[in-house]
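Problem 12. The chain below contains 698 residues. Write out its predicted structure in C-alpha cell notation.
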Amino acid sequence: MLSFHFRWLDPLGIIGGYWWVGPDGESKVLFLQPGQYANSGSMTKGGETGRPWFGQRDQKKVPLRIQTGKANVDFTDKLIALEKDNYPYDFTVLSWSLWDNNPLDADVPYAVQAWNTKYAYPKIRICGGHEIMSMIEEKYGKDLPVVKGDYTEYWTDGLGTAARLTAMNRNAKERVSQAETLWSMLADGNAAPREEFDEAWKYILLGSEHTWCFENPAEPFFQDAIWKVKQSYFHEAEDRSIQVLDEALAPATDKSNGGLGPKEGPSNGGIAVFNTHTWKQGGVVTLSPAESMKGDQVVDDQGNTVPSQRLSTGELLFLADEVPALGSAHYRVVEGTSPAQGTCKIQGTTLENEFLQVKIDEKTGNIVSLQRKGDTYNYIDPSVDGGANSFAWLPANKDLPQADTVQAISVVENGPLVVELRIDSKAKGCRSVSRSVRLVAGLPWVEISNVVDKLPWLEKDGIHFGFGFHVPQSTTRVDIPWDVMEVEKDQWKQGNRNWLTLQRWLDVSNETHGVTWCSLDAPLFEYGNRLANIALGWGGKGPWAKTLPPSSTIYSWVMNNHWHTNFPTTQEGPVTFRYRLYPHLNFDIVESNRFGLEQSQPLVHVTADKDPKLTPLLSVDNEQVYATILKSTGQDQELIVRLRSLSDKEEPVSLSYPGKQPSRVSLCRLEEIPGEEIRGAFSMKPYGQVTLKIEFKE
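Solution.
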C-alpha cells in the first residue's frame, strides 16, 4: 500500500527523498521512503529459511544469526527500472530484512564483498540510516523536492483495539506534561529528577509504539506472553505519571501527624489549586470524599463562599475562579451545606445553564438540540443519525450500523451547580452502553461521558459515536502535534482519508458558527461517514477514500478489532470515552486551542493548609503564543521552555519574569542545546516554535 502511494510521486523525484517542511515554512525534516517491506527482495530468503528464529519457546533453538552461504544482492533489474523512470539520482536505498524481528543475516557482508570485487558498477555499501541521510543531505539537499501538509498515516487503527489502554496512555501523557510544569513552579529552582520523568515518557512511548501483539494473536502462548509485556507498559506509564505528579506537588503539602492529627489530615480542609498554562484559567475542581470530609461548603482565600455541589458519587465539586497563569489559588472546605448557587436546571430531558440549552431525544438518547442562550440557532443536525452523540455498532466490511436501544434515562445530578442526565442502553456487541450529558453553571460547554461495556467478540466489528453538526459550508480544522490541519486541504493525496487522528481538539465552523469538539480518550475519528469499516487483511484491499467531500459530521471511532495481526482480537469490559462540545460564533484559533488544552490539562489540586501564593516563573506578552513545554533540567536553576505560535503571521514576543530574573536566556536551535543569547523581544515565525534555555542565578 505504501509502495503504491509513494510511487505516485516518482515524477517529482520523491522516491529519492524530500524535505518535509513544517508549518512555519522554515523548520524541516529530511524524509526518505525507500519502498515497500524489504524492497531488496530479502524476504524471499527469509521465507526459504523457514524463519527458525520465530515461534520458538525454547530459547536455545533461536539462532544468533542466519547463515546459509548465499544472499542475492544482484539488484541490476531494479536499477534498470529506475533508469526507465528517469530516476535523477546516482544512488538507491534497499532495505535488507529476512522478516520482522529477525536475527542478522550473516551472508550479506560476504555477498556484498564478492559483488564489489567482481563488478566495477554498481557498488553496494552496507550503511546505517544516519550515513544514508547525511549523504542525501550533503549531495542533494539543495535540489530535493519540498512538500508541505499532513501525511495522515494508516497504522493508527490499532489504537482502537485496546481502547482502555489507549485512553490510559493519552491521560498519562497529559499528566506527565503537567507534572513537568508543576515541578518547575514549585521546586524553587531545584533540579528535576530527570531520570524519573524520562522513564515515565519512555513507558508512554513504549505503550503507543505500533506493534502490540504476536503475529498470530489467536495463538495462546506467544500472544499471552507478548500481550502481557505490552500491557505492562501502559500500566507502568500510568503509575509513573501519578508518581511524578505527586512528587511535583509535594512542596505545597503539609506534614502529617498520622493518628495524632485530625482525621482529615493536616490540610484542615485547605485546597491549593494550580494553573499549568500561560494564561488565566478557571474551571471545576472535583474533590474526593476523603479530601472534602469537613463539609459541603467551599470558601476562597478571602473567606467568600464559592459555588459547590456534593455529587451523587460522594465527590464535592466546586467552581474555581480564574487562577493566574502559572500561578495558584487557595480554597478551603468548611462545615456547612453547599449554597444554592448556580443556574443549572433539568426539565424532562432538557438541560440548561446560563449559557446553553441541550435537548435529548427520549427515544434515542441522542442530543437533538444545542443552543446558546439568547439565540435560536441549533448547532446539532438531527437528520444525521437522529442527533449527536449517537451510538452505532458496525460489523466489519458492511455498512449496516446498528443503534443502541434505550432502556432508561435518569437524572444523575439535579443542580444548581451541576446537572446531568444518563442514558442507559442495550447494544449489540456490548453488555451495556451508558451516555451521560452534563452542564456546569458558569461554563459554556457540554460535557459528555460515554461508557461502553464491550463483549469479547471475535467477530470483526467496531464502535462509533456520531456527531452531526448543523454548520453548513464548514471547514474542519484538526489539532495535530505542532500544527492545525484542515481536512482534505492539507492532506497529501497519498494520505489516509478513511480514518484520522487528533491530538486534543478539532473545530467545525463556517464564517458565523462553529463547534470545537474535544475527544479526551479516543484519538481516532472519521470525517463525513463511517469510512474506517475495513477488515480485509493483507494487500491494502478495501474501498480507500481518495477525497473527502466537505462535511460537518464527525464520528469518534472508539473500538475495533479489524486488523488480523499484531493487535488484540478482542477487548472486554467497560471503557469511558469523554467528549466536550463548545458551540461558538466565528472560529478563533486561540480560543479553540486553549479550550482543548484546558480540557486535557485541567486545573490541578492538592490538599494543603497553607496558600502557596506562587509567583509565576514567566509571563508571555502575546496571546497568540503560549508555552507547550516548561520543564526543569537536571541542573539547579535551569528551565527549558518551548513556545508555539498560533498566528499566521510573524509575531513579536517578550517574556517577563515576575519573580527572579534570569542570568541568561539562550535559543536552542538543535534539541535542547543552548546557542545564541536572547536579550529582550524576539520574533516568531508564522505557526513557528522556539525552544529556550533559561538560566537563573543561584
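Discussion. The chain has a mean pLDDT of 94. Students who got a different answer should revisit the alignment rule from Section 12.3.
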